[in-house]
């Protein structure tokens, strides 16, 4: 992978870890997830007029992606309510690239080189190692995390293909971001009522705007990278977000890090190096 692609994907990983920390720190994870989705859409609006429309063939992918993103944000909130971030985040983010690496040859006809596959598997192993440090985790948290890993793999495929045929990965990303918050807030209002939703938005709008901007920028960088490199390797490299999440957990949340976190960090770094050399 070219160095500029690697650096941009790593920056996107930092942004991804940041907005996940915002959801984890929030008092109402479902509404905070919806706010972040909405913040991404608001951040996208000013740029739409300056970008070409995605090709017509990409719009079915945008529609499918919106439904999958709705499921993703719902599962993120549910998983963080059910289990510790040390268990949930590694399972969600670590299993998804494993699924992609295992199936990309069949679905996308992308055959990874031996070194690229080794780097992908090494990063995944490092991410999954973090699950070993979790001391509080329920079967429900595990099931929700694994379900979301399947959703992540699915929308990665959908958006990877959609971005490639759209003609402009940035335009695809911005248009794709508009529908999920509509679905999320419609669901929230139906379940919680308008008053409760509006009250939360008034108190936490800044959280959604900051997290949403980071979310859409992170994913846009990943989709752009998928137009330059195999989807499986980009998906794996993006999971280095767990390294940034480790730093955030220690410096912001003051969590105590076990030896497994540091072991995982070393393994992930090695995987990134292997991908660079692939």
Protein architecture, described:
- This protein is mainly alpha-helical and 278 residues long.
- The protein is built from twelve helices and no strands.
- Helix 5 (114-129) runs antiparallel to helix 12 (259-277) and helix 7 runs antiparallel to helix 9 (194-226).
- The longest helix is centred in the last third of the chain and has 33 residues, at 194-226.
- The radius of gyration is 18 Å and the shape is globular.
- Keywords: Cell inner membrane, Cell membrane, Lipid A biosynthesis, Lipid biosynthesis, Lipid metabolism, Lipopolysaccharide biosynthesis, Membrane, Transmembrane, Transmembrane helix.
- It is found in: Cell membrane.
Please give the largest β-sheet: none
Low-confidence stretches: none
Query: Which secondary-structure class do the elements indicate?
Result: mainly alpha
- The ordered H/E elements are HHHHHHHHHHHH
End-to-end separation? 7 Å
How confident is the prediction overall: mean pLDDT?
83
Helical residues, percent = over 70%
The proportion of strand residues reads under 5%
Choose one word for the global shape.
Answer: globular
In short:
The protein is mainly alpha-helical and 278 residues long. The protein has twelve helices and no strands. Helix 2 (29-48) packs antiparallel against helix 3, helix 4 packs antiparallel against helix 5 and helix 8 (179-192) runs antiparallel to helix 9 (194-226).
Task: Using brief descriptors, characterize the structure shown.
0% strand; single chain; 278 residues; lipid a biosynthesis; 12 helices; mainly alpha
């Amino acid at each position: 992978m070219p160095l500029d692609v690697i650096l941009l994907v790593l920056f996107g990983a930092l942004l991804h870890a940041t907005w996940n920390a915002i959801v984890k720190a929030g008092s109402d994870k479902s509404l905070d997830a919806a706010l972040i989705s909405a913040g991404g859409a608001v951040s996208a609006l000013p740029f739409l007029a300056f970008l070409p429309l995605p090709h017509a063939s990409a719009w079915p992918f945008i529609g499918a992606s919106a439904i999958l993103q709705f499921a993703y944000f719902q599962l993120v909130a549910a998983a963080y309510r059910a289990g510790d971030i040390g268990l949930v985040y590694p399972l969600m983010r670590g299993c998804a690239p494993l699924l992609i690496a295992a199936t990309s040859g069949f679905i996308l006809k992308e055959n990874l080189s031996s070194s690229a596959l080794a780097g992908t598997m090494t990063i995944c192993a490092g991410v999954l190692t973090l699950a070993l440090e979790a001391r509080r985790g329920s079967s429900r948290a595990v099931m929700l995390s694994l379900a979301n890993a399947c959703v992540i793999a699915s929308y990665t495929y959908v958006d990877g293909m959609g971005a490639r045929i759209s003609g402009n990965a940035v335009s695809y990303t911005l248009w794709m971001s508009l529908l999920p918050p509509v679905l999320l807030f419609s669901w929230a209002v139906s379940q919680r009522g308008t008053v409760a939703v509006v009250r939360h938005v008034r108190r936490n709008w800044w959280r959604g705007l900051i997290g949403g901007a980071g979310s859409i920028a992170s994913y846009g960088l990943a989709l752009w990278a998928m137009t330059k490199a195999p989807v499986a390797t980009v998906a794996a490299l993006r999971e280095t977000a767990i390294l940034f999440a480790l730093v955030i957990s220690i410096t912001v949340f003051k969590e105590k890090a076990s030896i497994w976190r540091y072991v995982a960090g070393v393994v992930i770094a090695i995987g990134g190096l292997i991908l660079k050399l692939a």
